[in-house]
Amino acid sequence: MKIGTPKEIADGEARVAMTPASATELQKLGHDCLIEAGAGRAAGFEDAAYEAAGVTVLKSAAKVWSEADVIAKVRPPTETEAKRLKEGKTLVSFFYPGSNEAQMKTVSKTGATVVAMDMVPRISRAQKMDALSSMANIAGYRAVIEAGTNFGRFFTGQVTAAGKVPPAKVLVVGAGVAGLAAIGTATSLGAIVYAFDVRPEVSEQIESMGAEFVFLDFEDSQDSSASGGYAAPSSPEFQEKQLAKFREMAPDIDIVITTALIPNRDAPVLWTKDMVEAMKPGSVIIDLAAERGGNCELTVKDEKIVSDNGVTIVGYTDLPSRMAAQSSTLYATNIRHLMTDLTPEKDGVIDHDMEDDVIRGATVTHGGEVTYPPPKPKVA
Ligand code: NAD
Question: What is the interface pTM, i.e. ipTM, of the complex?
Answer without folding.
Answer: 0.92
